Amino acid sequence: MNWLLVVVGGAVGAPLRYLTDRAVQAHQGHGVAYVFPWGTFTANAAGSLLLGVLTGAAVSSPAHALLATGLCGALTTYSTFSYETLRLAETGRAFLAAANVVASLLVGLGAVFLGRSWRAGSGSGGGGRRSGTGAEACGQAYRGGRGFRRVSGGVRGWARHHSHRVRRAARSRTTGSVPPFSVLPRNTAPSPRRCHPCALSVPSVGQPSPR
Fold it and tell me: Do residues 65 and 2 make contact, with C-beta atoms less than 8 angstroms apart?
């Protein structure tokens, strides 16, 4: 199905290039500027700009086949550009031939970059515009979900640890055993009644033990 879209786009792009070339040449006038291939130059620059806009917009595959491959492919022409450059060189206008090569490359690349940057920038603005590309949105959603799982996992771990400490304290109260030091309230020392008698008399350094 895409090949049919390419045919339709090419059927529109080729006549559009011809009409653009005729319209530009009709306003060229006479002199050295008339010899320069302004029609092909304008068509190539316009096609490069349109292709940059389509690339920045990330259009679907059918739209890309219709507009990028079909329309832009027929609107721009490398064969005519090469032929006109060679004709300028053969007629003794080497300076215009070199200028055509350099200007076509610079303007074509600049038009692609300008169209792509403009469309990408307009899609990432504020208000009702999109907040970014699909990949950036997916990355933000993934980072947000990962952070939520990390926080929720920490809360669940703290809750399990706290409930375990409460159950251990409850069992120690029912059995009369001494709870471990980790379940005692913070800044609270053990009761002397429940400590071993030897723990109450700690020998100083250098003195023998009472035993």
Answer: yes
